[in-house]
Amino acid sequence: MNFASVRIITDDLDRLVEFYEKVTGVSAKRPAPVFAEFVLPSCTLAIGHSQTVQLFGAGTARAADNHTVIIEFRVHDVDAEYTRLKPLVDEWVQEPTTMPWGNRSALLRDPDGNLVNLFAPVTKEALERFSGRN
């Protein structure tokens, strides 16, 4: 089994696509008006309009109702990304901080309220743990 992607369901696809294009620096692929994908070297982030949920069956997902998942992006320099994105982000949950497990991390909310973590391993142990990963 291979992990393929994470999909966010939203009522405002264009707004969320524009936000993640700015965060990732990657243009979204739009194979349909109600669906977009960010194909990154290590993963794919998909965004679907809430209309797409009907294709999977009623009640399978609700837009902007996530309280358990954090979308994480490994970055080269957390502090530089924080500075770059600070004017674009409405809510910062945590300014750059070094976590007990050795990652430097900044936590924000996207326009739908989903938590997004920008992190970089910075301690020797964390760097070793991520060695060989994209």
TrEMBL record:
<dbReference type="GO" id="GO:0004493">
    <property type="term" value="F:methylmalonyl-CoA epimerase activity"/>
</dbReference>
<dbReference type="GO" id="GO:0046872">
    <property type="term" value="F:metal ion binding"/>
</dbReference>
<feature type="domain" description="VOC">
    <location>
        <begin position="2"/>
        <end position="121"/>
    </location>
</feature>
<dbReference type="InterPro" id="IPR037523">
    <property type="entry name" value="VOC_core"/>
</dbReference>
<dbReference type="GO" id="GO:0046491">
    <property type="term" value="P:L-methylmalonyl-CoA metabolic process"/>
</dbReference>
<keyword id="KW-0479">Metal-binding</keyword>
<protein>
    <submittedName>
        <fullName>Glyoxalase</fullName>
    </submittedName>
</protein>
<dbReference type="InterPro" id="IPR004360">
    <property type="entry name" value="Glyas_Fos-R_dOase_dom"/>
</dbReference>
<dbReference type="InterPro" id="IPR051785">
    <property type="entry name" value="MMCE/EMCE_epimerase"/>
</dbReference>
<dbReference type="Pfam" id="PF00903">
    <property type="entry name" value="Glyoxalase"/>
</dbReference>
<dbReference type="InterPro" id="IPR029068">
    <property type="entry name" value="Glyas_Bleomycin-R_OHBP_Dase"/>
</dbReference>
